[in-house]
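Study both lines:
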Amino acid sequence: MKKYFSEFLGTAILVIFGCGTAAIAGSYVGTLGIAIAFGLGLIIAATLVGNISGAHINPAVSLAFLLQKKLSLKDFIGYVIAQILGAICGAFLVMWIITSANIGSIESVGLGTNGFEKLSSVNLSLGGAFLVETVLTFVFVLTVIKATSDKEKASTSVLLIGLALTLVHIIGIPLTGTSVNPARSLGPAILMGGKALKQVWLFIVAPLLGSVIAVIVNNYLLNEKKEN
């Protein structure tokens, strides 16, 4: 249960600081500020719970570890449930803060949800959004795999992963709001409802696909183990 609570807490922290910054302070800090908030949120969460659960804080990351046989099916299910619940609770706290302040309605401010077409800042198409989320998740998850498997990078792995999340957000925020994390997308979408909830399927499927591709590329194209 300590592992599951760690994933719950870590995901809640990511949503509070990442989605919270997008919804509450986005107009002040801009795309770069939001991207940094997500990266720093992940670094803080990983620092707090990494030694307990590994700080996946993302079903796409947990899927990669499952496929690499570094996580059991039981723990995978437990992690994903905890991550989704953490994202919902984090989004609820952001929503409570917004409704308690004079900064606009939830409908006008948002909760840091993801979207395409009219919900995208640049009206990105469904196909474009699917491609973007798949590619960005592929890059992010592959970075996680490499950073956590290389003993030489162990001391800097949290920083590397946080920087990778920041990087994918810089390009992804104007396009889709950047998901690369099904739990991070599902929590706010459930509370927002409407089009955000109708479109959230893409931000579940595409990141999971990106994760699978990352594992395949790592295992078969970037595997450094020498064959006898």
User: Anything to note?
Assistant: The radius of gyration is 17 Å. The mean pLDDT is 94. The domain at 2-220 is CATH 1.20.1080.10 (Glycerol uptake facilitator protein). The chain is about 75% helix and 0% strand.
